């Protein structure tokens, strides 16, 4: 990704104003522009239904499986669908501050090409024909800026489309908008000095998550039915959970990563992956199948040449009961009451449906964080500090926390780097043996120590980053919503704690604040069992009626 230094010659505030003005100008190209009230309630999740034309709502409310079927059969034109999603995405920006730019000219030109192809050939161009897809800002689009959340990167222009976008475009996708990312790309929050804070559509006092929080908020508001995020510590799963949508962190080296702007020295010490967020599990499946069916390893040799497999699970198909392990807590931080209630609801329903459910005790999850946080910034955070110093932009609170206040962030010598990589591999082996001993197909566990946190408080990553360390695929799904009358801390829980971090997490819980916010859980499988994780999720949903409450 090329880097230019012109941005550093101006005050960072001027660059931020230019960024926001540019974004607003792309939205102003719509006719009519979105009608966003000047005063917004805390919860905006239902507002699009009353602010948009019914024709737009009818299209954007379709689950992706129905929408795609209508596009593939010619019942809906790509132009009509793209237009609808452009308007809903633009409104979503006004409600949650989740976009870096709308792409009306590019998207509509592409949609018209697809419609012309369909009219001439009487068939779709590919399996995603006409489907609008949103993308996280650091995934390069030719000719467009790629800042990765830094003011000093404002003049970085992508020379070509990222490989993942090339694959999806060949399958017929339409890219209609790009979404916000945080400074450093290493927050479970989405906030930057370029665009400000992306808020949770269910409660603006809470975070949408990060670092794919723009995607999480946008998909929750149905400004996209399928979006592209990335994950090195929870960055797909955190926003999916916080915003009540579906998300998948794939196994590394299955989905292309060439052509993104990603800023983290030594990033290969903890593999970062690209993956989907969607309004339904179908969106996760079609994304993975379409990309892997394209054999992207032929042009990106680092990828594993592993086809997408049709995996069957459950006693009806395999003659063997599905065995799910439940990780109730990680022995460091107890989840808040709504998370524990969701775990019990889902595990009970699974058991009632004939699925075998067993306890899955944690294995040294505190050690996992020590290894991870030593490998995240092997340069001691120097590159990030330099990039912020170039523009003079201030450090955001969570940037300070993850780099400057993290005792494990040190510039590593070759010997120290080797030590931590050996620790990583040893831990991976030990965890595999732990899993073998318990003999489970998947693990059901929290996504975080609570639901969507208050801004600048998302400092406990272990429920997601654990699985980045061992490189296990993990899918997030909504279960229910917080109920302040039920989800209360009992007196026994108030008096005990697993650790200082546990006590700190408990102080963050307020049932009044979190009432009505989505409660989500995570399904984790073994490395390269992405297909199995999604098959189990679909099987569980069929057997248990998940989600137990409508999110929108």
What order do the strands of the largest sheet run in, or round the barrel if closed?
Answer: 1-3-2-8-10-9-14-15-13-11-12
What name is given to the CATH topology? Amidase signature (AS) enzymes
Helix count from the secondary structure assignment: 21
Uncertain residue ranges: 1-8, 263-267
Family: Belongs to the amidase family.
Protein name: amidase
Enzyme class: hydrolase
EC number: 3.5.1.4
Structural write-up:
This protein is an alpha/beta fold. It has a single domain (6-35, 52-544), classed as Amidase signature (AS) domain (Amidase signature (AS) enzymes). 41% of the residues lie in helices and 13% in strands. The protein contains 21 helices and 15 strands. The protein has helices spanning 12-28, 47-51, 54-60, 64-72, 78-96, 104-121, 163-170, 213-220, 237-243, 281-293, 315-318, 337-352, 365-375, 382-391, 397-404, 414-438, 462-470, 491-494, 500-507, 511-514, 530-544; strands at 99-102, 132-136, 174-179, 191-192, 196-197, 199-200, 203-207, 226-231, 246-249, 273-278, 323-326, 356-359, 442-446, 474-481, 518-524. The chain has an 11-stranded mixed β-sheet, sandwiched between helices. A two-stranded antiparallel ribbon has the order 4-5. A two-stranded antiparallel sheet has the order 6-7. Strand 11 (323-326), helix 12 (337-352) and strand 12 (356-359) form a beta-alpha-beta unit. Helix 3 (54-60) packs across helix 5. The longest helix has 25 residues, at 414-438. It is globular, with a radius of gyration of 22 Å. The two termini are 39 Å apart.
């Amino acid at each position: 990704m090329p880097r230019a230094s012109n941005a550093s010659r101006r005050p960072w505030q001027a660059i931020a104003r230019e960024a926001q003005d540019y974004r607003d100008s792309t939205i102003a190209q719509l006719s009519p522009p979105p009608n966003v009230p000047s005063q917004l309630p805390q919860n905006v999740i239902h507002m699009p239904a009353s602010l948009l034309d019914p024709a737009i709502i009818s299209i954007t409310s379709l689950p992706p499986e129905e929408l795609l079927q209508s596009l593939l059969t010619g019942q809906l034109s790509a132009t009509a669908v793209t237009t609808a999603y452009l308007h809903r995405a633009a409104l979503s920006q006004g409600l949650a501050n989740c976009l870096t730019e709308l792409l009306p000219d590019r998207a509509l030109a592409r949609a018209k090409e697809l419609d012309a192809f369909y009219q001439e050939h009487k068939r779709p161009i590919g399996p995603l024909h006409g489907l609008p897809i949103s993308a996280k800002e650091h995934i390069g689009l030719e000719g467009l800026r790629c800042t990765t959340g830094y003011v000093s990167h404002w003049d970085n222009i992508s020379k070509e489309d990222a490989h993942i976008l090339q694959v999806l475009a060949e399958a017929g996708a339409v890219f209609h908008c790009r979404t916000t990312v945080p400074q450093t790309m290493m927050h479970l929050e989405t906030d930057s000095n370029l665009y400000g804070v992306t808020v949770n559509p269910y409660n603006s006092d809470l975070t949408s998550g990060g670092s794919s929080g723009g995607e999480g908020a946008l998909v929750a508001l149905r400004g996209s039915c399928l979006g592209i995020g990335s994950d090195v510590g929870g960055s797909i799963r955190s926003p999916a959970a916080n915003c009540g949508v579906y998300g998948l962190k794939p196994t590394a080296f299955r989905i292309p990563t060439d052509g993104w702007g990603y800023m983290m020295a030594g990033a290969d010490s903890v593999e970062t992956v690209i993956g989907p967020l969607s309004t339904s599990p179908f969106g996760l499946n079609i994304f993975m199948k379409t990309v892997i069916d394209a054999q992207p390893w032929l042009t990106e040799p680092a990828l594993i040449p592993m086809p997408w497999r049709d995996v069957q699970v459950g006693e009806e198909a395999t003659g063997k009961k599905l065995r799910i392990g439940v990780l109730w807590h990680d022995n460091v931080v107890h989840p808040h009451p709504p998370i524990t209630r969701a775990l019990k609801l889902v595990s009970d329903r699974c058991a009632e449906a004939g699925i075998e459910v067993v306890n899955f005790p944690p294995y040294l999850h505190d050690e996992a964080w020590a290894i991870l946080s030593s490998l995240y910034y092997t340069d001691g955070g120097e590159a990030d500090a330099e990039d912020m110093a170039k523009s003079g932009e201030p450090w955001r609170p969570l940037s300070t926390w993850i780099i400057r206040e993290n005792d494990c962030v040190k510039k590593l010598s070759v010997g120290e780097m080797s030590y931590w990589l050996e620790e990583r591999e040893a831990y991976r082996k030990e965890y595999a043996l732990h899993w073998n001993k318990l003999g489970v197909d998947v693990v059901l566990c929290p996504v975080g120590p609570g639901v969507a946190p208050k801004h600048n408080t998302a400092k406990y990553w272990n429920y997601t980053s654990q699985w980045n360390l061992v490189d296990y695929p993990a899918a997030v799904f909504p279960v229910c919503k917080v109920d302040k009358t039920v989800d209360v801390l009992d007196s026994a829980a108030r008096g005990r704690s697993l650790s200082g971090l546990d006590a700190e997490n408990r102080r963050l819980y307020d049932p009044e604040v979190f009432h009505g916010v989505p409660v989500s859980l995570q399904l984790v499988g073994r490395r390269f069992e992405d297909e199995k994780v999604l098959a189990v999720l679909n099987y569980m949903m069929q057997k248990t009626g998940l989600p137990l409450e409508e999110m929108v």
